[in-house]
Amino acid sequence: MHGEALISKTVVPSGIEDPVERARAELRAALNAIEVKGNLPRRASDAIQRGAVKARAFADGNPGAAVAAAVGAAAAVGAVVWGLARLIAR
């Protein structure tokens, strides 16, 4: 996943003695941190990916509960759509 790589890009390595090299490393880490924080599409993609992994693990462990959760989610979406259609029809 991207999370581990992003964290390592935003950390200043220890043991840099040269002040110029240390300043460059700090600047590089700060710019990477800004990029990570501001890249909303990538953050959303990573969050969706983590959620999918958790959902698959849940479905593998509890297939009956996963089916019930899917049916419940579909019913909730259906109720929202029905309610919106009813509001628009008035």
SSE ordering: HHHH
Total helices: the number is 4
What proportion strand?
A: under 5%
Distance between the termini: 48 Å
Shape: elongated
The main pleated sheet reads as: none
Describe this structure in a few short sentences.
86% of the residues lie in helices and 0% in strands. It is an all-alpha fold. The protein is elongated, with a radius of gyration of 22 Å.
Features:
90 residues, mainly alpha, 0% strand, elongated, transmembrane
What does this structure look like?
This is DUF3618 domain-containing protein. The chain crosses the membrane at residues 65-85. Keywords: Membrane, Transmembrane, Transmembrane helix. It is a single chain. The protein is elongated and about 70 Å long. α3 packs across α4 (63-89). It has helices at 2-9, 19-38, 40-61, 63-89. It is built from four helices and no strands. It is an all-alpha fold. The mean pLDDT is 88.
Question: Which SSEs are present, and which pair or pack?
Answer:
Blueprint: H1 2-9, H2 19-38, H3 40-61, H4 63-89
Helix pairs in contact: 3-4
Transmembrane segments: 65-85
Protein name: DUF3618 domain-containing protein
Organism: Microbacterium oryzae
